[in-house]
Amino acid sequence: MKKSLIWALALLLALPALAMGEEAPAPLVKDETVYAMLDASGAAQNVLVVSRIETPEEGRYVDYGAYEQIAAMVSGVTPVVEGETIAWELPADEAGFYSVGTPSEAELPVTLEVVYALDGETVAPDALAGQSGRVSITMTVRPNENALQVYRDHYMAQIQLPLSMDTCANIDAPGASGALVGQTNTLSYTVLPGQEATFTVAFDAQNFSLSGITMACARVDLGGMMGLDVDELLEQADALTEGARALADGTDELVGGMGELADGLNTLAVNTRSLADGLAALETGLSEAMAAVTTLADGMTQLNDAMPQLTEGATAYIDGAQSALSGVDALADGLGALAAQGESLTEGVDQLTQGLSAMLAQMPAEQQAALSQQLTALSEGLTAYVEGVSQVSEQTAQLAEGASALTANGETLKAGLTEQQSGFSALNDGVTQLAEQTQSIPAALSELTGGADQLAGGLEEAAASTAETPEQAQALVDGQTELADGLEEAVSALTDIPALTESDVEIPSFVSEEHSVRSLQFVYTTAAISVPEPEEEPAPEEEELTFWDRLVDLF
Q1: How do residues 276-294 score in pLDDT, each as one tens digit?
Q2: pTM for the full predicted model
Q3: From CA 333, how far away is CA 400, in angstroms rounded?
């Protein structure tokens, strides 16, 4: 049902054309070549468009374009032009059908500017013809901002400059590739889509002439031309950019860690230096201590040797104390006897005084007084004697107690001296052994001090180097960041090159933006710089050339 309806609609749409007796146009497959004739300086003088239409079968072919004039390149075919629509009635021909026309507008994809100089002085092209000297030709190619964007994005220019080896020598052509065929050295330069470039050729000329500079502009698929899978390339570039960014981030973290390492090494170096200084001080102190230990060992030996004498002295001291104690005891006994005798004597004096009292009464007064005084003095002297003996007796008792304590202490001292002698002997042995064993310590400590000093120096150098490394590593981080930024810019630049990323874009006709063509190319040719020929006799007037004759002369 649906198929029947579609066929019915197609038949209804076709009825008006059938009613008018018009034949539907054949499909148009067209190739265009634009020829631009330039003057010797590169200014456009004339532009022609040669079109080729595929004609696999006889029929009516409709082309489109804005032309000032257009004609077939075969006789007997005339177009029907209505505005920008050109209709051709064409026979079948495997070679296709060619037409040539002058476009109403001609904005070429690039412009070419040529400047000539002779011996360093800029000269007009015509003035250079037939000259000799050092010639330079500077060619500048620029995108034409007035041309279609698709042309500027997808068309690559190739310049060819032919130099005759008969008239040119010592050629200097930076950036050119040359092809020598016969006596002609053709220099070639390439300019990528959307780029501006300037090339200079210098050479020694003799009777200079130039057949003309040719420049061809053709669509280019950069990815295909370089054998690149652009999508894969961009993916890899993105991955590389991400990797460079991650590397920069990781290196930045490494810089932070290296800063911490530098601080740690610096602290360790300071502490190790303090340790080395402390070991050096310890070495000095130990040397002094070793000297003191040696002195102590010598003193201990002398003291140990004197201990037997000290013990003997203590024994003699104890014996003397015991003898003194015995004497004190005898003295105490004697004093006791004296005290008893003194008391008896005192009592006798008292009795004598009482017995003499009757006699005293009978004596003269003077004798009585003198005798009484003598008796009183005797009594007082005896009393004082008894008191003195008593005091001496008490002191002798205290002396006896002291002598007894002295004897006991002497025993303790003797026991202590005996024990001390044993301890001094052991101490002497220990000090002597210490002195012997510590003899090797200074050398080991000196070696340890030297090692600590070397370690401190190494750590200081490591700390200094590590402290500088973060700055160097920061430069690496900056470089990696710049690399990542550059990769991003490169990827962005790649995506901005349509000739690289767009391989299936349609190319509009040079004479009609509304229609596309299968292929389109541009051929630029500058005017020749020729040496004037000698004047000859005027030739007979020739028949005026037709448009076709002039077109054929172009080829």
Answers
A1: 788 788 778 767 767 776 7
A2: 0.52
A3: 11
